[in-house]
Amino acid sequence: MAAKKILVADDESHILNVVSLKLRNAGYEVVTASDGQEALELALSEHPDLLITDYHMPQMSGLELCQKLKQDPATAKIPTIMLTARGYQLDERDTEQSGVARMISKPFSPRHLLSTVNEVLMEAAV
To answer: What pTM was estimated for this model as a whole?
Structure first.
């Protein structure tokens, strides 16, 4: 079976590097974007199995990115993990409309993120 493809979008290069390394070491194929617009273009061309996105990014926020993906039938079913600043929570309506499966506050443990990735991918497969 081919490795699951995960798109990671974050404007902080150290977050991209840590998350990408952890996911690749776990056997996932990783595609990265440094802003919301780039992530949207990659999601449309790469068809990832999962999106991990920061909430605060240039060009387009993570929430706007998720809403655009949800509106397109080709990307509407991509599950998403949203990374946010500590203490920040999305409105429940925003979460439902954008298809965000989980939210993780920064700073986070790479081990916790990997566990969450595995859970979300298992739920999406059901």
So the answer is: 0.92
If we measure between CA atoms, which residue out of 22, 16, 23 comes closest to residue 38?
A: 16
Digit-coded pLDDT (tens) for 100-122? 889 898 899 999 999 999 999 99
pLDDT single digits (tens) 50-86: 999 999 998 899 999 999 999 999 999 999 999 987 6
Assign domain 5-125 to a CATH class.
Answer: alpha beta
Whether 30 and 20 have beta carbons less than 8 Å apart is answered as: yes
Cα distance between residue 115 and residue 46, in whole Å: 23
Alpha helix segments (H runs only) across 3-125? 13-25, 36-46, 62-71, 92-98, 110-125
Q: What is the pLDDT of residue 125?
A: 87
What is the domain partition of the chain in residue ranges?
A: 5-125
CA 73 to mean position of chain CA atoms? 18
